Amino acid sequence: MATRDYAKRGRKPRAKGRKAASKPAFPWLRLVLVIALIGGFGYFLWSIQGASDGQPVADTPVAVPVTKPKPAKAEPALPEKPQETWEYIETLPEKEVEVEVPKQELGGPYQMQCGSFRKQSQAEAMKAKIAFMGMESQVRRTTGSNGVWFRVVLGPYERKRVAESERHKVQRGGINGCQIWLWN
Question: Signal sequence: where (predicted)?
């Protein structure tokens, strides 16, 4: 197939019935309509200007009755502001408040369980992961109504705050889902 040179070919001639593109005609009708609206609005404002002063719009004179202003009555003077006395300034330093604070019962030792598995090998693998983090854990065998489970447990902890800090260490190591419970 031969190559075509589209650049030298030129443009197609225009159709005979087609007009050349020209500027649209100036919208005289719109201009006249806008000027008429602005003029009408201005006339409206001018016509209501006289009515706002309390005078009629028409040029006919109107009789307005003249009244004499009445003298203002003298109001009685306000009483003097009373002096405020505060008792609490003197009595507060002498008072003593007693509050009963109940002793907080310690919940006892806490344990943290990080996993429960059907196979002992999986529990031992998690115990090894925890050992690499520098913490000691135990694998406990539990027999329940739904079979034998191997639980990975850390603890005991005297306070829950210590158990929480250990849980954060384990989470940083990539083991999530550890639960803290009372030691049973």
Answer: none
DSSP 3-state assignment of 133? coil
In tens, the pLDDT along 75-115 reads 778 888 888 888 888 888 888 888 888 887 667 799 999 99
Cβ partners under 8 Å of residue 123, min gap 6: 115, 117, 139, 150, 151, 152
Name residue, tokens 């310690």. 106
| Domain architecture of the chain: domains with CATH | 110-182 (3.30.70.1070)
Q: Are 137 and 154 in contact (CB under 8 A)?
A: yes
What is the pTM for the complete model shown?
0.44
Q: Which residue has the tokens 């329940």?
A: 144
